[in-house]
Amino acid sequence: MNKNLLLILPLGVFLLIGIFYFNSKTDPTPSETTEDSGPKNMVQHGVDFSNGQSVDVIDYEGNYLLVSKLRVGDSHPPHATGPGCGDKHWHADDPVTAVNNGKVLSDPLAGGCGFGTLSERPAMMYFPHELLAE
Ligand SMILES: [Zn+2]
């Protein structure tokens, strides 16, 4: 018997099994695309995303705060009500609702760097369940 045939035969069988197995796996599966295609509620914690636009946020310890609800404080020296801050920083005069989880946060250090400096917490683009660097 030819030595080459002894090699080719098992290889051919193996290939056939492989093809059979592959074919059995590609059986048409019942399509379960029951996602409703109707209009979705795109309001998330008071922010309407239905126009497909992102909002600018900062990431404060995993809470995404709208930049539009914050104000930027200039660096200021220590004063009677706080330690001051050496850089531009984020403040909020009123409690802010985080757009990703609905947590309501007050300025943690009104007499200091507030929610942090702009370099610590740069503004980012936020889409619902999505965060991209600006
Ligand atoms: Zn300040």
Question: How would you portray this structure in words?
Answer:
It is a single chain. This protein has a domain at 43-133. The N and C termini lie far apart (71 Å). The radius of gyration is 29 Å and the shape is elongated. The mean pLDDT is 83. The strands form four sheets. A four-stranded antiparallel sheet has the order 4-3-9-10, with no helix packed on it. A two-stranded antiparallel ribbon has the order 1-2. The chain has a two-stranded antiparallel ribbon with strand order 5-6. It has 134 residues and is α+β, with helices and mostly antiparallel strands. Strand 1 (43-44) and strand 2 (47-48) form a beta hairpin. The chain has one helix at 3-25; strands spanning 43-44, 47-48, 55-60, 63-66, 71-73, 89-91, 96-97, 104-105, 124-127, 130-133. Bound molecules: zinc ion (ZN). Zinc ion is lined by residues 73, 76, 85, 89, 91, 114.
Q: What layout of secondary structure does this protein have?
A:
Blueprint: H1 3-25, E1 43-44, E2 47-48, E3 55-60, E4 63-66, E5 71-73, E6 89-91, E7 96-97, E8 104-105, E9 124-127, E10 130-133
Antiparallel strand pairs: 1-2, 3-4, 3-9, 5-6, 7-8, 9-10
Bound molecules: zinc ion.
